[in-house]
Amino acid sequence: MLYAFTWTIVFTLLALWSLAAWALHAAGTWTATNAGALTGAASSVELRLPDWLAPWVPPEIAQSFTSLLSGLGPLVDNLLQAAPALASGLTVATWVIWGIGSVLLVALGAGAHLLIAVWQRRGGGGGGSGPRSARALSAG
Q1: Which of 3, 29, 74, 103 has a CA 20 to 30 Å removed from the CA of 57?
Q2: 98 and 17 in contact (C-beta within 8 Å)?
Q3: Across residues 61-68, what is the average pLDDT?
Q4: pTM here?
Q5: Domain range list for the chain
């Protein structure tokens, strides 16, 4: 009975692991495929220092900071355009991570199975139906 309970827990965890991997893959794929629709949004945003910070920062540093931030707009646009192509890599990564997690869960179940077998063999369980109790009855 303990074996069935242990494997039921393992298969339930495996089902939850599969559901989580599927949901995160679906959310990631949806996000990656729809990211291409956001192109052009990053270059239209004007990035500058906040007004409350301007008096505390030297003008040269503020100007270099503004030019650095304005150069990030095309980089972000290029990343958003490339995002749909990354969705296939996300599928591979999801399968690899799901496989590793599944193997670990089955190994956890096998380890629990072996621990139960060792525990029952040493007399920790079994309800008096093992070879040890038969020897005790014949000796006593």
Answers
A1: 74
A2: yes
A3: 82
A4: 0.59
A5: 2-123
